[in-house]
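User: Here's a structure from my thesis project, written as C-alpha cells. My advisor, Dr. K., wants to see whether a designed sequence matches the one we expressed. Can you design one independently, without my sequence as a hint?
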C-alpha cells in the first residue's frame, strides 16, 4: 500500500506539469518515479494471489481479477475522454487554458487509485511474514545472479520460463504502448479516435480474461498462454496484411488481437504463482519482474528497427517477432518438471 500511494502521489503531482518546455524534465521524472513505485506495488500485489484463491481456482481468480482491472480502466478512460474532448470541462467549470482539462484528469486518476485501493487495504488480511535477516540492496543483487546461475544448472525449465515470459510479456506491453502510435503514424487517426480504440481494446482484453477464467484451471496456464499468444500474432498479421483496408483493418484486427492480451498476461501470473512456494511468492514475483525489466528494450528496439528500415506499418511486425520468440521458447518448457527453489531470492 505504501508503494501504491507513492505511485498515486506521482500521478497527482502531474497536475503541476504545465504545457511548457520548462516542465518537460519535471514531467519525465514524475513518469519515471511513478513507474518505479507501480512496479514495486505490482510485485507485492501479484504475490498475494495465493492468499485470495484456492489452488484449484488460482487461474480463475487471476483471470477474473485481470479482467476487472481492464473494466476499471475503461470507466476512467471514458471519464477522461469526456473531460478532455467532449465538453466535460465546461460542465465541471474547468478552464481550457494551460491544458487544465488534461491536468485535472491527472488528479482524477490519483483519486481513482486511492479510492479503489481501500477495499484491499481494509478487507484483505495481511499474511504473516517469514522473518529472517534482510539483505542489503547490493547483497540482494549478488544473490539474484547466484540464484540465476544455480537455476540454469539445477532447474533449467524454470529459467527458460522466466526468459520466455520476459520476452513475450515485453512484446505484449509493446502492443499497447505502440498501438496508439501505429494508429496515428500508419492510419492517420486523431486523438479522439485513438482513445475510442483504447476503450474498445480494454473492453475486449477484459472480456478475453473473463472468458479465460472458466478455462485456465481446466486446460492449464501454459496452454492458455500459448493459445493467447497465437491469437495476438494472428491479429497483428491481419493488421499488416490488410493495411490497405485503412482504418477498418486497424480496428478489426487490432481489436481482435486485444482479446488475447489479457489472458496471456493473467495466465503468466498464475503459472508463476503455481510454480513458486507459497511462502516465497514475493521473491518469485520479484524475480519475475526483474527478468521482465531486464529485456524491456526488446519491443522498443524491434519497433524502431522495423519502422526505421521500412515504414510505420512494419512496426507491428517488429512486435510480432518478439512475441513469436517468446512463444517458441515457451513451447520448449516442460511445466511439470520445475518449481521455484526454496532458497531463491530477488531484490
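Assistant: Designed independently from the structure alone:
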Amino acid at each position: 500500500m505504501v508503494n501504491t500511494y507513492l505511485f498515486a502521489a506521482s500521478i497527482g503531482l502531474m497536475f503541476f506539469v504545465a504545457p511548457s518546455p520548462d516542465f518537460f524534465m519535471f514531467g519525465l521524472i514524475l513518469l519515471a518515479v511513478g513507474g518505479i513505485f507501480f512496479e514495486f506495488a505490482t510485485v507485492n500485489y501479484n504475490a498475494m494471489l495465493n492468499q485470495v484463491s484456492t489452488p484449484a481456482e488460482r487461474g480463475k481468480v487471476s483471470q477474473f481479477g485481470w479482467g476487472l482491472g481492464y473494466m476499471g480502466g475503461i470507466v476512467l478512460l471514458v471519464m477522461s475522454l469526456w473531460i478532455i474532448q467532449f465538453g466535460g470541462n465546461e460542465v465541471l467549470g474547468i478552464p481550457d487554458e494551460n491544458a487544465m482539462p488534461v491536468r485535472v484528469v491527472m488528479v482524477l486518476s490519483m483519486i481513482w487509485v486511492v479510492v479503489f485501493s481501500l477495499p484491499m487495504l481494509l478487507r484483505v488480511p495481511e499474511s504473516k511474514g517469514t522473518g529472517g535477516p534482510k539483505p542489503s540492496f547490493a547483497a540482494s543483487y549478488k544473490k539474484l545472479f547466484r540464484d540465476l546461475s544455480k537455476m540454469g544448472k539445477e532447474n533449467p525449465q524454470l529459467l527458460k520460463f522466466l526468459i520466455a515470459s520476459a520476452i513475450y510479456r515485453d512484446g505484449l506491453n509493446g502492443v499497447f504502448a505502440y498501438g496508439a502510435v501505429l494508429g496515428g503514424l500508419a492510419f492517420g487517426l486523431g486523438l479522439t479516435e485513438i482513445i475510442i480504440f483504447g476503450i474498445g481494446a480494454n473492453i475486449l482484453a477484459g472480456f478475453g480474461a473473463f472468458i479465460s477464467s472458466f478455462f485456465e484451471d481446466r486446460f492449464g496456464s501454459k496452454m492458455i498462454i500459448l493459445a493467447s499468444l497465437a491469437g495476438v500474432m494472428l491479429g497483428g498479421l491481419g493488421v499488416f496484411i490488410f493495411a490497405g483496408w485503412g482504418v477498418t483493418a486497424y480496428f478489426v484486427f487490432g481489436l481482435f488481437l486485444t482479446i488475447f492480451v489479457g489472458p496471456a498476461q493473467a495466465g503468466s501470473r498464475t503459472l508463476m504463482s503455481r510454480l513458486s512456494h507459497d511462502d516465497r511468492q514475493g521473491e518469485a514475483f520479484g524475480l519475475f519482474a526483474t527478468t521482465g525489466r531486464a529485456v524491456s528494450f526488446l519491443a522498443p528496439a524491434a519497433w524502431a528497427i522495423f519502422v526505421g528500415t521500412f515504414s510505420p506499418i512494419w512496426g507491428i511486425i517488429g512486435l510480432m517477432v518478439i512475441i513469436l520468440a517468446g512463444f517458441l521458447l515457451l513451447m520448449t518448457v516442460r511445466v511439470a518438471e520445475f518449481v521455484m527453489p526454496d532458497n531463491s531470492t530477488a531484490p
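When you compare it with your expressed construct, this may help: Residues 156-187 form the longest helix (32 residues).
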